[in-house]
Design brief:
It comes from Nocardia aurantia. Helix content is 42%, strand content 14%. It is of the alpha+beta class. The chain has one domain (2-103): Transcriptional regulator MraZ domain (Chemotaxis protein chec), CATH 3.40.1550. The chain has a 4-stranded antiparallel sheet.
Length: 113
């Protein structure tokens, strides 16, 4: 399942992971404008893809536009899903957020450390 991700990347989920995400999103309060916008964007921007014999998937023109994908892309493992980034956008993101990773504190990461 391919959908718009955060920071103008694309998110690629296994179908069961996406289904769980969609169910959690559907439980959000419909009176919250941000929740409504998220659910709508998630539902409207998701494409089910099946890899071809060589393991490739097709990305829609809308997905390529959203992520500003050019010739060179980067695929990032993100624990339970993948992210697809334009290479230059990923390099800019890393440069901008490198210190965030180094300075991450337990309270901002929900107690994972």
């Amino acid at each position: 399942m391919v959908t718009k991700g955060q920071d103008h990347s694309l998110a690629v989920y296994p179908k069961d992971e996406f289904t769980a995400l969609a169910r959690r999103a559907a439980e959000a309060s419909r009176s919250n404008p941000q929740a409504r916008a998220f659910v709508r964007a998630l539902a409207a921007s998701t494409d089910e893809q099946r890899p071809d014999a060589q393991g490739r998937i097709m990305l829609s023109a809308e997905h390529r536009r959203y992520a500003n994908l050019s010739k060179d892309c980067v695929v990032i493992g993100s624990v339970d899903f993948l992210e697809i980034w334009d290479k230059q956008a990923w390099e800019s993101y890393l440069a901008e957020h490198e210190e965030d990773y180094s300075q991450a504190r337990d309270e901002s990461l929900g107690g994972i450390f």
